[in-house]
Design a protein that fits this description.
DUF3050, Heme Oxygenase, Chain A, 11 helices, mainly alpha, Haem_Oase-like_multi-hlx, globular
Amino acid sequence: MSRIQHLLTQIAPHRNALINHAVYNHLNNLDAFHTFMEHHVYAVWDFMSLLKSLQNQFACTTVPWHPSSDASACRMINEIVLAEESDEDGRGGFASHFELYCRSMKTCGASVDGIEKFLFNLKHMTLHEALISSDIPQPAVIFIQSTFEIIDSYDPIAITSAFTFGREDLLPNVFQRIVDELNVKTDGRMDEFKYYLERHIGLDGDEHGPMANRLIEQLCQDDEQKWIVVEQAAIKTLVARKQLWDAILSSIVKS
């Protein structure tokens, strides 16, 4: 058994808790899905923050330029950034997967007021100030804070682990079936979200996931302490996502 396979076995209970979460049983109408998206969009945003943090770690993003200390890691991260930050948008142009997500929210009727206010505030405030001043659901604030605890550690292994094991491949096949059914019920209002799923989750599973796994193996090799850091960061990320899913379910049930 490879170290990655062993790690996946160790964190399997946490992954399974997300893949089999009860929230999916309640995403049976457009209002419930709006609630989901208006929370989940912040996880999509901070996924991009994890990725850019890795790019800062492994590629030179400052001027004057200097060579990367790890050209292989630099190449992998830059390839992922290319697709995540400037993918084909389905309309003949390019957009980040985050922008595709926000576009799909608008198309299906979910509110983007909260995320847009947050992004505006980020241009003028620190992250902490923007989290307080914006209309962000409190569970999403807690989720972002958990992610940035890892980002602010500046530990490339912990950040790579959070990025690798917090990807959207956590959304199960049943989620895509729910989207397909809602799309039929709403005469195509979920088309943009289906495109997001196709591009983002498709790339995650087929390309970016294996690349991220290889990066972890390259960074850790046979260093037992580094593999412990990977496992701890992975579990922290999955637990935070589970708490966000719990809060979304609670919000849907209440409404």
